[in-house]
Amino acid sequence: MNIYQDIILDHYHHPHNKGKISHPSNSVLTNNPLCGDKIEMMVVYDRDKVKEIKFHGEGCVISQASASMLTDYAKNKSKHELKKLDSKFIIKMIGIDLGMNRIKCAVLPLEALQKLLI
Fold it and tell me: Does the pTM of the predicted model rise above 0.85?
């Protein structure tokens, strides 16, 4: 195993920011009907910055690890900064080669985050 695989497995087994926020500024549910992955993401803003962000859901190792890593990254970032993120950022963050089917899993949390920023 390489270091990136170890990091992904660690985020899957010990996800950061997994849970729910009782009074979020916004929340959204996204899913991938092809594989059944579901991500619910909630956020609390302080002015224009992410004060708190959590996710909840079910899915494969890639989608859950991606959600954990992305929510870590999003903390204390402005909406403007986060709107610039794209699938290339997620693929680089994951750090391993992903097949076409797994790319959708990896970017599902990004889709949720983008909907939260509207």
Answer: yes
